[in-house]
Amino acid sequence: MKHDWLIFDLDGTISDPKDGIVRSFNYALQAFDLPVCPEAEIAAYIGPPLDQTFIQLVGSHDPDLIQQLVAKYRERYAEIGYRENRLYPGMAQILAQLADAGQYRLGVCTSKRADFAEKILEMFGLRERFEFVSGGDIGIEKWQQLAELRRDGVISQQAVMIGDRAVDITAGQRNGLQTAGVLWGYGSVEELSQVAPTYLFEQPQQLGQL
């Protein structure tokens, strides 16, 4: 199939956000006298929406507590956390290659709030590569973001959703899109294989195969 849109997840796909996310999660937990979590435990949840991760970390569905934890997390993330982010090696080059080829239009669909995503892309000098940034928020699933983009005619049925977690792949599949799983982020081979993406890439340079 000829693709016209390449839709990228952000965290774990374009850049590695681990330091800022881990530190901001523990900042929020400490603020409510809750036990901090090891880096590896939090890293396993990078990708899904914040409220879902806090529910898992604290073992509570109390909406007031979860909302307060998310607000405290964002307090630190907005000031410091978004800057504690590293671009994956080779990512800037492959994005330039894909954009300059003239065959594709590029966009971002992330569970991260849009203003944070914009700041991160601007920090890396990548914002101009993307025609839009679709950001999430509490209570919004990624498949719903893609559905809105399809409904509004922003992207077409020939778009490819690219991401490192199963949620990225299933979001694309639910909207009838082809998908590409990437293995340099936080989703394992096992996790991605279980949801059967159209493509599975080990290095950013392989995105050129699209």
Structure description:
The structure is a single chain. It is built from 9 helices and 8 strands. By secondary structure, it is an alpha/beta fold. The protein has 2 domains: 5-16 and 87-209, HAD superfamily/HAD-like (Rossmann fold, 3-Layer(aba) Sandwich), CATH 3.40.50; 18-83, DNA polymerase, domain 1. A 6-stranded parallel sheet has the order 5-4-1-6-7-8, with helices on both faces. Strands 2-3 form a two-stranded antiparallel ribbon. It is globular. The mean pLDDT is 95.
Count of extended strands: 8
The total of helices stands at: 9
Overall pLDDT confidence:
95
User: Can you name the CATH architecture of the largest domain?
Assistant: 3-Layer(aba) Sandwich
The CATH superfamily name of the largest domain is: HAD superfamily/HAD-like
Question: Which residues sit in consecutive blocks of at least 5 with pLDDT less than 50?
Answer: none
CATH class of the largest domain: Alpha Beta
Distance between the termini: 10 Å
Portion in helices: 40-55%
What name does CATH use for the topology of the largest domain?
Answer: Rossmann fold
Instruction: Determine the structural class based on helices, strands and strand pairing.
Output: alpha/beta
Main sheet makeup = 6 strands, parallel
The rough form would be described as: globular
How do the strands line up in the largest sheet?
Answer: 5-4-1-6-7-8
- Sketch the topology as an H/E string, one letter per element: EEHHHHEHEHEHEHEHE
Radius of gyration: 17 Å
Q: In what range is the share of β-strand residues?
A: 5-15%
Overall tally of domains:
2
